[in-house]
Structure to design on (228 residues):
């Protein structure tokens, strides 16, 4: 089991992280494509008209180099590569044109999950286990010319397993910040994971995952079976 950051100050470059990551569900066109016509049936009944969020709480956070535990009875885990947006100030009802003023920086994150077929109201048991959100090193906002045009590459044991891009987001980074802060306030140090491309690579115990965005510190974690 990863030690996570349960006792750390979460000092991470441009800002001290709050310890809460908000993930945007189905904010990548590949996720909607995977659902296909099912999105119009129960329990979804329609494509989302507003951001659908889930939480990766403090216990899920891990650093690059930490070991991610594969729970007993689980054959493999999903490695969900995403861009993380670090909030630099309190953000409430932020207009799209001013959304980047609320951003301190960005990082690579791995939204690890136990594989599941239903994405309606994601189960905490499947997405919020200890160490299920490794974070890469942060880069300041000024270092990223356009967060909506970044290529994310995921490698499993040094083999390219997935290539995705933030050009395929349903809501752009600025639009997502504006839409989320319309109904909830984000605090300095919160992270907004903008969306995971589907289907994510599967990872077995004993394998290593590396997630890379050009110009970002890399994120690398081994996956090992939990003991006890």
């Amino acid at each position: 089991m990863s030690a996570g950051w349960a006792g750390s100050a979460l000092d991470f470059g441009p800002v001290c992280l709050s310890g809460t990551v908000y993930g945007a569900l189905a904010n990548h066109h590949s996720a909607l494509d995977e659902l296909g016509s099912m999105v119009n049936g129960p329990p979804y009944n329609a494509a989302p008209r507003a951001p659908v969020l889930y939480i990766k709480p403090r216990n899920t956070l891990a650093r690059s180099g930490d070991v991610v535990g594969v729970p007993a009875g689980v054959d493999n885990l999903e490695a969900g590569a995403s861009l993380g947006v670090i909030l630099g100030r309190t953000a409430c009802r932020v207009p799209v044109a001013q959304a980047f003023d609320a951003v301190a920086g960005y990082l690579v994150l791995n939204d690890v999950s136990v594989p599941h077929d239903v994405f309606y109201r994601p189960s905490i048991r499947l997405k919020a286990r200890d160490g299920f959100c490794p974070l890469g090193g942060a880069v300041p906002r000024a270092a990223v010319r356009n967060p909506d045009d970044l290529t994310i590459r995921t490698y499993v044991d040094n083999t390219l397993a997935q290539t995705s891009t933030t050009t395929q987001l349903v809501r752009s980074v600025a639009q997502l910040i504006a839409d989320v802060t319309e109904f909830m306030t984000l605090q300095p140090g919160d992270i907004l994971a903008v969306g995971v491309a589907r289907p994510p690579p599967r990872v077995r115990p004993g394998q290593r995952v590396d997630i890379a965005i050009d110009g970002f510190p890399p994120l690398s974690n081994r996956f090992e079976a939990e003991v006890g």
